[in-house]
């Protein structure tokens, strides 16, 4: 159907000011008007009359559907094109309600705009409507309503209603929108259309009186899809995505057949190997869990693609909640977080959103983002736990343990933030601060008790060895504080030390040559590669507390733990290493460890981590465990 332009605008070029369109009683024979020659006007009055006749002829001959309305919205005159559009003789349309003829009351916004024009509070309204043609097909039209110049004789105020057929343009725009809003590979709705539908679904579910008022989302990512692209090429990858899309669509159709909701299901490709299944008016988490499991089951079956037999799995994040108070951004953030959990938990599974787990994640994020500024603000402090000789019960050294006095979360132990500091690199700056403060404190104790110096043990993360010049940092701090190198012990975890080569091994060797003691922390929980002990510059083994727990009771001993500890102690001594047992909590444990030759112990039996002044009290009391 050809698109036709709207005519009859009050301000259109060539219109005589003050000209009027015909009233109901002034219809002319349009054929006669348009074919008979008119005599030249002989004066101003005849000029005006001729112009009026021309406009009446144009109105009735126009192929654009037009009607003249009064301020009540009733038809005063309609041209043949308008009658053809609505399937009624124009003469029978007089006094008809224009809004009913053109469906202007279909939506509240359009109806309000129309009433504003009728009342004279607006100069124009324009809207698009889908009308039923008398021949049975639908016609997309653009409806325009605007005021006309008042009738010269009666002064009656009138309006022009024009209806332009825009079916061709609408169809073209619809095709262009479909291309714009759909993924060319899978033919599924793309990210833009998905978010458009999601926003509409949230708005509808929040305010519609019917329906469940809930919304659900399965957000999935194919596991290992990059390997398919890298090894078989993007063409095979695209075929796989298309096949996956078909299976997802069938899963959604099957779910809708089992229990259709008012809003239905939407399957979309959000980009790459990410897909989403939106469930409008969901009925609860069980519905979403069933859908997610059906997707996993469908994707487990191999794909046959042009002679290639491929198997893929997916990780799915599942979110289901009430629509009220939910935003599209918030829902997608929750789905993305849950998808990450599914991958973190082992992939090829679906995971349901857990508010408590998410709160923990948000806390981690808040801590991570404030770690670096916290060092500058002085929010960290050190506590010290004694390392006690099992032979004489005297404190030989202390381990420095960092605490974060967080203004919001209170005092945090290292297990709450050290891993975060290693992830974002803040461990380098924090570790340097800990090393400096611990060395200053150890130097103060040395000056206060010169006869029996106390060494300090500081934990070092492997990232400090890689991302900073640890050797230079240690040398500078020792020089600045005046602490002898033999009073400093650096602890690295077994997993960080074992297998060390290149720069880490060189750094450890340089520190050892400097006189600094190197200790392997939590020994027995990692590689336990004994061959490395003879090649690494290690002075101390710190046995993990899991071995010591087997020494808790004489009535229920664990012979295996004791045999392992005894063998490790003997091996360490043969290699010239000393052994420290962690997590010593009872005198019975301490005695059994002493009997098998363990050198020092650390744990709550002797003291919990305490402030520096409490350590000073231990030293003043003779550095005995009971002090």
Pick out its properties.
627 residues, alpha/beta, Beta-Lactamase, Alpha-Beta Plaits, TIM Barrel, 3 domains, five-stranded antiparallel β-sheet, 21 strands, elongated, disordered N terminus
Account of the 3D structure:
This protein is of the alpha/beta class and 627 residues long. The protein has 3 domains: 57-172, Beta-Lactamase (2-Layer Sandwich), CATH 3.30.450.20; 182-353, Reverse transcriptase/Diguanylate cyclase domain (Alpha-Beta Plaits), CATH 3.30.70.270; 373-614, EAL domain (TIM Barrel). 43% of the residues lie in helices and 21% in strands. The strands form 4 sheets. An 8-stranded mixed beta barrel has the order 13-14-16-17-18-19-20-21, surrounded by 5 helices. The protein has a 5-stranded antiparallel beta sheet with strand order 2-1-5-4-3, sandwiched between helices. It has a 5-stranded mixed beta sheet with strand order 7-8-6-11-12, sandwiched between helices. Strand 13 (380-389) and strand 14 (395-406) form a beta hairpin. The longest helix is centred in the middle third of the chain and has 25 residues, at 234-258. The relative contact order is 0.06.
């Amino acid at each position: 159907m050809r698109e036709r332009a709207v005519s009859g605008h009050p301000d259109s070029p060539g219109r005589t000011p003050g000209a009027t369109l015909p009233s109901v009683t002034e219809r002319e024979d349009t054929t006669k008007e348009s074919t008979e020659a008119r005599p030249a006007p002989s004066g101003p009055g005849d000029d005006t009359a001729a112009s009026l006749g021309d406009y009446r002829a144009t109105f009735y001959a126009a192929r654009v559907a037009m009607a003249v309305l009064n301020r009540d919205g009733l038809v005063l005159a309609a041209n043949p094109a308008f009658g053809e559009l609505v399937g009624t003789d124009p003469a029978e349309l007089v006094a008809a309600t224009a809004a009913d003829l053109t469906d202007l009351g279909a939506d509240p916004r359009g109806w309000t705009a129309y009433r504003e024009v009728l009342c004279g509070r607006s100069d124009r309204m324009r809207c698009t409507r889908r009308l039923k043609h008398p021949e049975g097909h639908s016609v997309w039209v653009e409806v325009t309503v605007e005021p006309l110049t008042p009738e010269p004789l009666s002064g009656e105020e009138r309006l022009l209603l024009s209806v332009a057929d825009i079916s061709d343009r609408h169809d073209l725009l619809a095709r262009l929108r479909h291309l714009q809003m759909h993924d060319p590979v899978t033919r599924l709705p793309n990210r833009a259309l998905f978010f458009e539908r999601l926003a509409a679904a949230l708005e509808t579910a929040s305010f519609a009186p019917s329906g469940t008022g809930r919304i659900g989302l399965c957000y999935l990512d194919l596991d290992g899809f990059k390997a398919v692209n890298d090894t078989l090429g993007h063409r095979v990858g695209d075929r796989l995505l298309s096949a996956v899309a078909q299976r997802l669509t069938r899963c959604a159709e099957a779910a809708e057949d089992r229990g259709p909701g008012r809003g239905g299901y939407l399957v979309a490709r959000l980009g790459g190997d990410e897909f989403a299944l939106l469930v409008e008016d969901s009925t609860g988490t069980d519905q979403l869990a069933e859908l997610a499991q059906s997707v996993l089951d469908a994707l487990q079956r191999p794909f046959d693609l042009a002679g290639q037999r491929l198997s893929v799995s997916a990780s799915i994040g599942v979110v289901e909640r009430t629509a009220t108070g939910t935003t599209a951004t918030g829902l997608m953030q929750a789905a993305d977080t849950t998808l990450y959990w599914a991958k973190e938990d082992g992939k090829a599974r679906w995971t349901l959103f857990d508010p408590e787990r998410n709160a923990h994640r948000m806390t981690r994020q808040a801590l991570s983002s404030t770690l670096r500024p916290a060092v500058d603000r002085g929010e960290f402090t050190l506590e010290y736990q004694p390392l006690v000789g099992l032979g004489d019960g005297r404190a030989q050294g202390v381990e420095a343990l960092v605490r974060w006095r967080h203004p919001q979360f209170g005092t945090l132990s290292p297990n709450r933030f050290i891993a975060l500091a290693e992830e974002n690199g803040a461990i380098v700056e924090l570790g340097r601060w800990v090393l400096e403060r611990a060395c200053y404190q150890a130097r103060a104790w040395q000056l206060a008790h010169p006869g029996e110096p106390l060494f300090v043990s500081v934990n070092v993360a492997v990232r400090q060895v890689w991302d900073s010049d640890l050797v230079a940092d240690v040398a500078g701090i020792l020089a600045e504080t005046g602490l002898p190198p033999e009073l400093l012990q650096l602890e690295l975890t077994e997993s960080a030390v074992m297998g060390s080569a290149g720069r880490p091994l060189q750094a450890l060797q340089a520190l050892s040559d400097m006189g600094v003691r190197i200790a392997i922390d939590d020994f027995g929980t990692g590689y336990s590669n004994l061959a490395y002990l003879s090649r690494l510059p290690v002075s101390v083994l710190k046995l993990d507390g899991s071995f010591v727990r087997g020494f808790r009771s004489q009535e229920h001993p664990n012979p295996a733990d004791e045999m392992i500890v005894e063998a490790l102690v003997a091996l360490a001594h043969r290699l010239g290493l000393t052994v420290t047992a962690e997590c010593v909590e009872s005198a019975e444990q301490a005695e059994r460890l002493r009997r098998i030759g363990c050198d020092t112990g650390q744990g709550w039996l002797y003291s919990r981590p305490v402030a520096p002044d409490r350590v000073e009290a231990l030293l003043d009391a003779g550095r005995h465990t009971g002090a």
